Amino acid sequence: MTKRPTYYFHTICLIAVFTVGNAVISAPYKNASNETFLGYLAAMAISVPLILLLSAVADMIFKTDSVGNSNILIRLLKAILIFLVSAVIIISAAKAFWDFVSFAGTEILVGTPKWIIAAVFAAIVFWTAFQRDTVLFKLSIFCFLILSVVSVLFFILSIPNFRLSNIVLLRLPDIKTLSSQTLPYLYNVFLSCIPALIYQKLILGKIKKRLALSGVLSGTVIFGICLLNSLLLFGVKAAVRADFPYAEAISTVTVGNLFTRMDGFSYFLFFFSCLLKVSVCVRLVKVLFKKGATL
Amino acid sequence: MTIKIKILTCFISAAFIMLSFCGCTGYSESDSRYIVSSIGFDAEGRELSASIEVVMTNSREGEGEETKVFSALGETPESAVYNLGGELSKPILTDHCGVVVLGETLDKAQIESVFSYCRSEAILNPAVYIITAKNAESLISCKSVWGPAVGYDIMGIIERSREENGISYQNRFYEADAASDKVLPVFSLPFFEVEEDKFSMTGERIFNGYSPVLELNTEESLVYSFITNTNKGGTMLIGGKKSRVSASHTYLKVGRENGGLKLSLNTRLKGEETDKEFERELKAAAEALIQKARDSKAGDIFGIAERIYKKDIKLWDKIKSDYSKIFLSPETEIKYSAGGDKA
Lengths: 295, 343
Hints:
The structure holds 2 protein chains of 2 kinds. By secondary structure, chain A is an all-alpha fold. Chain A has 12 helices and no strands. Chain A is globular and about 65 Å long. By secondary structure, chain B is an alpha/beta fold. In chain B, strands 1, 2, 3, 4, 5, 6, 7, 8 and 9 form a 9-stranded mixed β-sheet that branches. A 3-stranded mixed β-sheet of chain B has the order 12-13-14. The interface between A and B is medium-sized, with 35 and 27 residues.
């Protein structure tokens, strides 16, 4: 008898890559102030109970034994919830898709019409989305390892140029300021992993809370390293002025005389995290539509 | 193929793809564009003159590289660089630009517009060096000595100076630009002079809010780096006295007295060869520099305001509105000492 694969490590990687996703391209966000890193830490703390709650809700919505329930009200409620979840997933995918296309159009393929970039990226997304689940899972491990190595490596290489004073807070922020700095991270980083939780439920049959938390925390640590890299190098105000702070932070690193523009590493990082996020979302929407049709 | 080999193949392929993004590969890109190694800006009446030094490669013919300088006028840095197109037969590639030179004739508004240009020009590396010169065009028109272009020679000079005497010029674009976020927007840029087609770094120029306020010679630059904690250690020569300093830190004590400030700066040096004589020379040179800054009305060029703000925010809140006046008033006393810690 062959043992059914568990995909536990794969799931952690998938959620981690989802958490980094397109959020890393433009962080810190345009309304960021000196308290932005504190906001990120606050969002990290809030996300733990939030992810547990979301996992429980997702588990409840997609409970397998309730499928085919004859009660018309329950079926209707379920259909509405599936519709809402699908909407969240589509919005999440559309934002990640547009963020990457905008980034590529501005930084990599300057002058190329955006629709061409969008068409090429969409083709890659659809090709990836219709691969087997195992392919997506393996891709997520690959992406996760690359993300970890690149973010840590460039953080270390940038250390000589860091200024700790860039993130030092002289006054504790009030609740209003802190919440305005926390919400973008909560929205762009932590809540963006909802599709990954649902994917876990639909593929593994159950949302394992420990896996979900490990994935979100691994992703936020990588995201935090990237964010800290930009903030320590440029300072909050200068980082906010940049369109793509992390890509610019990486471009300041030079290795010898040969590699003076290392931006390519950030392009790769953005490409894979966005590709995986959009592909999984497309696949999920397909599965959810099927599920909705069977109600 | 075993799984390990598959994984290894995946990672090697990924590394190749990532590296392929990192530079100009093949001859097609470098042959189809002019690589800009430095950009200079001077004022011509009310207009701005943009000069670019371009490296032209002829890899198809197997010939070496040569550099040429092109100039054009415009109302803004963007329009001046755009107007250069009329002289060039190929588009320019600014990704590898090493240096942006600000000519002495530029006024405050023009310098600000150059900073704004560098900020908005996404293809310009944020780590590009910003420097100053009497005339930007004359500087980049000099003959390169070591590298393929003057821009890269200038980068080499700044980096060598950083390694030798430890002066960490805060003149990468993102470093100079960060000054606008400080309580006093003071930043310094290396100053280059041209003599008979040869160029050399002769000191640095201090700016306050994009206005040049003071010029320092090489020795003063070294002392300035100690006071502002931007010296990373190296071999120093102050007042004819040579020393090897491995690390240094200048501590600041702030007090208030009779409407003025009582500031005491103390530089601690670490190094095998630091001695009392060198410390005495450093003290004399630092006192002279502080006096020069006060006499010239350049004000606080040492970032003391920023340090007071970070150290004692209540005191800063009290004095910030009149800080420039308070700093220059005779009631304000600045004491400097250099005490060695040879641990």
